[in-house]
Write a structure and sequence with these properties.
- There is one protein chain.
- The chain folds into 2 domains: 2-77, Glutaredoxin (3-Layer(aba) Sandwich), CATH 3.40.30; 87-199, Up-down Bundle (Glutathione S-transferase Yfyf (Class Pi), Chain A, domain 2).
- Helix 4 runs parallel beside helix 6.
- It is built from 8 helices and 4 strands, in the order βαβαββαααααα.
- The protein has 206 residues and is an alpha+beta fold.
- The chain is globular.
- A 4-stranded mixed β-sheet has the order 2-1-3-4, covered by helices on one side.
- It starts with a strand and ends in a 6-residue tail after the last helix.
- The structure holds glutathione (GSH).
- Glutathione binds at residues 7, 10-12, 33-34, 39, 52-54, 65-66.
- This is Glutathione S-transferase.
- GO terms for molecular function: transferase activity.
- Residues 1-81 form the GST N-terminal domain.
Amino acid sequence: MLKIWGRPNSTNVKKALWAAAELDLEYEHIIAGGAHGIVDTPEFRALNPNGLVPVIEDDGFILWESNAIARYLAAKYGVGKLWIDDAARRADAEKWMDWASTTLASPFVDIIWHTVRLPEDKRDPAIKARGVTAFAKALEVPEKALSGQPWLSGAEFGIGDIPLGVFVYAWMELPIDRPEFPHLTAWYKRLQERPAYARSVMTPLT
Ligand SMILES: N[C@@H](CCC(=O)N[C@@H](CS)C(=O)NCC(=O)O)C(=O)O
């Protein structure tokens, strides 16, 4: 059976859990990382030398990196579902996965650590404000894209929606200022109607 290592409050772990849930896959979930430890053990380092979650094992195949995991699960179990056969359409969707990691991850860390993760006396409002501004500015790009299509993956929901869907849940939940993004908000409402999203992503952030 598929195994997924990672604490369920991690943004990157949520991508793997959500992809598996969308595909109705049964899996064993090993809670690891943060206060749960495990990631520094030699056994875990043999799975992922980076000592980070998520990691999966599927029929003896070990994989780390959350976007690669979502792509792998979609390609193996989601043909005609999460996976898009046409190379151009798939690349058009997948670019959002890379975009989310390269553009949003850094401001997201500033926001989440300085809003809820660090002890209150260690939180720096200036770092939080820097993250909030940069994150909102970046979201202007998917806001525009979603004015012309229902999903980042195109006409149908797909892997391109997964990373941003996880980030946006936290962004909507955290006590921060948010500009109005009507198309992004409509997309977020559509995500919330998906049982797999509710089960895997709409869970505590701390
Ligand atoms: N690029 C990696 C980043 C993985 C990562 O940074 N994971 C964090 C959780 S979001 C982690 O393992 N932190 C250490 C821990 O939880 O102990 C991915 O997308 O999978």
